[in-house]
Amino acid sequence: MIEGEPEAQSGEDRLIARYFRPLATHPGAFGLLDDAATITPPPGSDVVLKADAVVGGVHFFPDDPPDTIAKKALRVNLSDLAAKGAGPAGFLLSLALPQTLGGDWLEAFARGLGEDAEAYRCPLMGGDTDRTPGPVTISIAAFGILPCGTMVRRSGARPGDLVVVTGTIGDAALGLLVRRDPDTAMRWRLEHRQRDHLIERYLLPRPRNAIAEALRQYATAAMDVSDGLVGDLGKLCVASGMVADIEVARVPLSDAARQAVASDPSLVDTALTGGDDYEVVATVAAGAKDALMAAAEAAGVALTQIGTIRSGRPGVRFLDHAGKPMLFNKPSFSHF
To answer: Does residue 212 sit in the same domain as residue 275?
Structure first.
């Protein structure tokens, strides 16, 4: 029983009041005391909607720190909002918990979620909590705001556009391999800092919300890279009815990923198709490239040109160092 709360409260009510009410700072959340919440967008604005879930044993290890699990659950949604050019406005949380998880886990989870909700200015608006006999399941629906009709879609790429990508590719997929088998770090001759970098990139995505407005202003098409660069860029090209020619040598890799690939060249496939990057791949008209690059630099986000868009049968070609198309056994991560 929480001091000052009425005895009529259920255990679920007390859980929400203790761990999650402090995160509901938006006035439209009504302190999580109502059945729903409200968001009033500014005049002339659209609300962008996004929902994504993470499941224990699928998207994170059961013994991962609860605060990083919470942050990952929110950030994978924020990444999509960034790619659409939207600023975060709030989120709903649905949380299914096994009986075995106690207050310490929930306290750390709520702390991590609250830190990111504040950092990204994306307050909790409501949600639901349940018990489950299965693994921890966290589903978040996030909301973003942008001027009417300006959302950056997958379908806007045009012939002559340039393909750009934020950050580095492949770190999280390689980090997952290290997390599963720590000996891989030794086989790849990684330094401790390189090993830690890969694992951290798997644990904590870095959504590129800092350049959401620049993407909205300059990008012709964009999407976040969650299921692997090869597969996700392929989806963008199909939606746009275009072909992308990508030079693999130009795809940005961290020094840790470069060292891993140097030790085992087959890992380039993992880096390009493994997923969990949560970077943004976008297309931009050649004349707008410099403006987008300058905006990204001002925001502290690395942006690299990796290829071009042309007419043809929709799809994507990744060209190796000799200019020959690469073939991938599994171009994209898929749950099914």
So the answer is: yes
pLDDT for 304-333, tens place per residue? 999 999 999 999 999 998 889 998 877 766
pLDDT (0 to 100) of residue 11: 75
Please list, residue by residue across 30-51, b when 16 or more beta carbons sit within 10 angstroms of its beta carbon and e when fewer do.
Answer: eebeeeebeeeeeeebbebebe
Query: In which band, very low, low, confident or very high, does the pLDDT at 145 lie, cut at 50, 70 and 90?
Result: very high
| Distance separating alpha carbons of residues 327 and 319, to the nearest angstrom | 9
- What six digits make up the tokens of 267? 């890992």
* Confidence (pTM): 0.91
- Considering the domain architecture, whether residues 189 and 119 belong to the same structural domain is answered as no
The C-alpha atoms of residue 51 and residue 67 are separated, in whole angstroms, by 20
Task: Assess if residue 336 is contained within a domain.
Answer: no
Q: Mark whether 101 and 173 lie in a shared domain.
A: no
> How many structural domains does the chain have?
2
Work out the pLDDT band at 335, boundaries 50, 70, 90.
Answer: low
Instruction: Specify whether 56 is located in the same domain as 108.
Output: yes
Residue 181 has pLDDT above 80, yes or no: yes
Domain with 311 in it: what CATH number?
Answer: 3.90.650.10
Give the domain extent around 101: 11-147
